[in-house]
Write a structure and sequence with these properties.
Layout: H1 6-17, H2 43-52, H3 55-59, H4 78-95, H5 100-109, H6 118-128, H7 135-146, H8 157-164, H9 175-198, H10 209-215, H11 219-234, H12 244-286, H13 293-296, H14 299-302, H15 304-313, H16 317-328
Helix pairs in contact: 2-5, 4-5, 4-9, 4-11, 5-8, 5-9, 6-12, 7-8, 8-9, 9-11, 9-12, 10-12, 12-15, 12-16
Length: about 350
């Protein structure tokens, strides 16, 4: 009798436990470059591991979510947001008997292409680049091209699709990808409320009464309400759905956050970030010889604008400031003794 690999055992477990319409690792649509399969992990588990160990993932801990360079250790960063999305996605996938490994991999990779200074940085690069710039497309470019010295991570079709299509305007081809898209909104709205209250921009009393009465008073309760509602409206069906009441409450809370927090906070960050990123973009467009070697290597194949956007979008907040200071701010010097 031939002994099964651990991967094959997991495949059997998926067949036994997952819903009929769940995405099974055994039947992935594969990778751009064919690889020998791992005996101990499924394709989606390997993708998750590749993302976690990537340099782009490590840099997320020093990228802004909403509040730039906050005074305090407990504000949400792009890294903690990503972990929030991963946890919520896994909870939803598990409850609906969908592929938890796939949902986790998509969630961990969905924001790898985010710029320094959060969505403000994305808006600035989108304005500067003739070809435009969107973080979901850049996240896919990170895993396809930029990681591993230009080889990319060679992820599966399903994970790549979920990363590209995670925005609310996207259309993920798997139910697991649809979960991450919803989990992203659930995570950032609720944890951004926590940060805004911590920063003194909001109080609990400022939150709009109707959506709070539906979703709950605290972060934990609101996230639980959303997950439970998705379960009630999706279990046993090949759809990821919410009730109209909960969905409209989340939309209303999101609109409130844009009016009272995001737009106001972004005005402060925008002026500084736009100045820095515009100067950096202009400088490197004219001085490609100053790009680090990995980005110089992209010039011939991808062009100057693409290489410059790759470099700037990969920066952490502090690294962008440091590069700006090194280029544009004169350092003090001594004339010495006569």
């Amino acid at each position: 009798m031939v002994k099964m690999t651990v991967r094959e055992q997991i495949w059997q477990t998926e067949d036994a436990l997952l819903a009929p319409y769940a995405t099974r690792a055994q039947f992935t649509r594969g990778r751009a470059r064919e690889e020998k399969q791992c005996d101990f992990r499924t394709a989606f588990q390997r993708d998750r591991d590749r993302i976690i160990y990537s340099n782009s993932f490590k840099r997320l801990k020093n990228k802004t979510q909403v509040f730039f360079a906050p005074e305090g250790d407990h504000y949400i960063t792009r890294m903690t947001h990503t972990l929030d999305v991963s946890q919520i996605s896994r909870s939803i996938a598990r409850s609906l008997r969908l592929n938890e490994d796939l949902a986790e991999a998509i969630a961990l990779g969905h924001d790898l292409g985010h710029t320094p200074f959060g969505h403000v940085g994305e808006k600035v690069l989108n304005k500067l680049a003739e070809a435009g710039f969107w973080h979901n497309e850049q996240s896919l470019r990170v895993v396809d091209v930029l990681e591993k010295g230009g080889r990319g991570l060679n992820l599966t079709f399903e994970v790549r699709d979920g990363i590209l299509e995670h925005k609310s305007s996207g259309n993920p081809q798997t139910l697991e990808g649809q979960i991450v898209s919803i989990a992203d909104r659930i995570a950032y709205i609720n944890h951004d409320i926590e940060d805004a209250i911590r920063a003194g921009i909001l109080t609990n009393e400022d939150l709009p009464a109707r959506p709070i009465s539906v979703l709950g008073q605290g972060t934990k309760q609101r996230i639980h309400t959303a997950i439970a509602d998705i379960y009630e409206n999706s279990y046993g069906k090949p759809v990821i759905a919410m009730s109209k009441e909960v969905e409209s409450s989340i939309r209303e809370l999101r609109a409130f956050m844009f009016e009272r927090v995001y737009n106001l906070t972004n005005k402060v960050i925008l002026e500084r970030a736009e100045r820095m990123l515009t100067e950096l973009f202009t400088y490197f467009m004219k001085n490609t010889d100053k790009l680090p070697a990995p980005y110089k290597a992209l010039l011939e194949t991808w062009g100057t604008e693409r290489a410059v956007c790759d470099y700037i979008s990969g920066m952490t907040d502090q690294y962008a400031i440091t590069v700006f200071e090194n280029i544009f701010i004169p350092t003090t010097f001594s004339l010495g003794k006569e």
